[in-house]
Each structure stands twice: as C-alpha cells, then as structure tokens.
Amino acid sequence: xxxxxxxxxxxxxxxxAMLSCFLWGSATPSIKTGYEIFSIASSDTWAIxxxxxxxxxxxxxxxxxxxxxxxxKFVKPEKEALPSIVKLGFAQTIIQYFCFxxxxxxxxxxxxxxxxxxxxxxSILMACFLFRQEKxxxxxxxGVILGFAGIIIMNISFSGGSMFTFTLPGEGLVLLSQISYAxxxxxxxxxxxxxxVVMLSGYQFIFGGLVMILVSLIAGARxxxxxxxxxxxxxxxxALISAVAYTVWGILMxxxxxxxxxxxxxxxxxxxxxxxxxFLNEVEQALQINKLLALILVSLGIFIxxxxxxxxxx
Length: 314
Fold this sequence. Notes:
Number of domains: 1
Structural class: mainly alpha
Largest sheet: none
Low-confidence stretches: 310-314
Radius of gyration: 19 Å
Number of strands: 0
Strand content: under 5%
Mean pLDDT: 81
C-alpha cells in the first residue's frame, strides 16, 4: 500500500512520466539511426519488421527479467491472461510498430515525432465515442481540433509544387500506428484491473516481437548482425526504451487518474523534435515555420485536453 501511495505523489508522477516521454521522444532518432547502422533500406519492408521484432522481443525479456528479480521469483503469465496478452501484442506491438517503423522509413524524424503526438487525440475519440468510457467535454473537443490542425499544417508546403504533402507509406502509416496505440492504451487500462500490468507488458512484447521476427524470416528477410558494438548498444537501448517507458507508464496509469498522467504526453513531441534535430541533423527542418507551429498546436492541444480534469484531481 505504501508503494502505491508513493506512486500517486505529484513529484513521483512528474519524474516518472517525464522519463517515459523522454524515452519515447528518443525512439524516432534511434530507429532512423538503426536503419543506417544495420544498412536497412526504406524499401526493405520485411527487414524493417524484423528489426522492430528483435527490439521488442528483447524488450519483453528485459521487462520479465527485471520484474522477476524484483519479485524474487520467475514471473510467468497466468492462463487467464493469455487472451489479454495476445490482444495487447497485436494492438500495442505488432500493428502499431508495423505501421510506425515502415512509416518512419518514408518520412523525416521531425515529422514522425510530431505525428506521434496524435495518439492522445485518438485515445480521447475512442474513449468518448467508441468505448463510451468518458464524456466529450469542451476542453477535449478544443484539444482534438488543435491537434489535428497541427498535423494538417505540418504537411503544408510553402515552397512551390504541391501545397499539401501526405503519403500513405509515410505520414499515413505513422497516423495508423497512433490509432493502434490509442486502442492499446484503453486495453491496458482495462486489463490492468485484473492482471499484473508489468507481466502484461513484458509478455505482450515477447509475443509481438516473436511474431514479427517469424513472419519476416518466412518472408526471407535477413538482417546483417555483424555491425559492431555500436549497433548492439543501440539495439539494447531501443529495447530499454520500450521496456522502461511502457512499463512505467502502465504502472502510473494503474495507480493514478488517466488525466493526471496523460497531461505529460505533450512533452513527447518536444523531446522528439529536439533529439531528431540534434542526432539526425534535421535542425533546418525542425525550425521550419509550419513544423514549429504544428509542434505548438499539438502540444497545446494535449495540454488543454487534460488541464481542467488534471486540476480537479489535486
């Protein structure tokens, strides 16, 4: 009970939520750097899927290892939890990252990062209209409108040619990944009431990653793993991104009102754009007026959606 009380303290929520957002923000430049190190072409779909599968399989192993050490016993999935693990594996890993990894190979790190901020808006729409878990409020409606306006503005070109740039293999798939992310968040909230959220996170990563690896192998993909120490360090870091960020976020969601945690979501695109600008040499693109305006609108939208309800939880 004492640990649960500690997880509801504002300073603990702040630090842990910011850690998750920083890690998620670092995912985009890490993935694109990984494509270069492992010599994965943007057109090699199955190699991309295999790369993602290896990352998430390792992430699942790390989650279960850490949880087993903490519990001083091997954490195994309950029989009743298997259907939930499979559903989460498809929504949170297989579908989400199939779309995200391929989409990211066909768009810039800055664009992919800002688009990834739309997941919160899709969560609201699903919770209000599809699952009927919440009521649509003025704050939520304004936030959703601002967020999607930012996505539209980000894809407007002011330098001749087509005014609006949007491709299904690029921006389209990244958006689809966020719809899958929104669905997985609702499922995590529902299933964590019955099962250990860390156990669910670890085994859904293992299941999802294994499926992606097997399917890519059947399709004939073979990633060159003789890339040196830098490649392995990056792969382990990417596994830790998922293992730590999703596990921490799931624990916070379990012990706090959704609004109190999700208010920090607006930091993910901020971290992501900054890190993409630094590590992917996309400073010029990050400073384009439409990218900056989109970043402001998406961040403001996420903040407005949560501001009123978050204040009521104090």
